[in-house]
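Support case: user asked for a sample of complex input and structure output to validate their parser. Sending the pair below.
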Amino acid sequence: AQKVTQAQTEISVVEKEDVTLDCVYETRDTTYYLFWYKQPPSGELVFLIRRNSFDEQNEISGRYSWNFQKSTSSFNFTITASQVVDSAVYFCALSRQVGNFNKFYFGSGTKLNVKP
Amino acid sequence: DTAVSQTPKYLVTQMGNDKSIKCEQNLGHDTMYWYKQDSKKFLKIMFSYNNKELIINETVPNRFSPKSPDKAHLNLHINSLELGDSAVYFCASGAPGQGTGNTIYFGEGSWLTVV
């Protein structure tokens, strides 16, 4: 069975602090994709990143970085020098192929509060 | 232009009513989805359509009926609304079927409140 766990329900930091959001997943598939989505207070769900199971290279995009480790089944997300605009709920997700489409499994989300 | 757009954004209605939420995507995707997000923020898949054909129906009550007139549209009709239907409903679409790499892109959500 597939499962995505985000153990941190809510995190509060002060602006400019670094923060890491944890994501642990379970799957027996060898081919799968991992995602992070952001849901700001306005409510929309914004795609941030996708990683496939064969690519363990870490990725950096501005203040955002992602650390994918198959050995620990983790796909963690770090925000460097956090800003108030980073306040949102962040969802980690796993996608696997079922027939000819993708089935997504979402974690329960981590709410990040960045205080000025 | 909004890639995935859904209307209405807010809907307040009484128990027992029937309502519809419309969704349109201009990304050229073959697959569209409806997700329900409850008050605890948990996202749950409801339906998925691929090129107008239903491919996932995740144990959703019969009161919920999706309709896909073409691959760019997936509407959600809800009959006999109940208090427990209050939630945020997200429409999403995915790139043409090419395996698990397909990212799904969400609409802005429709906030349904049943009173």
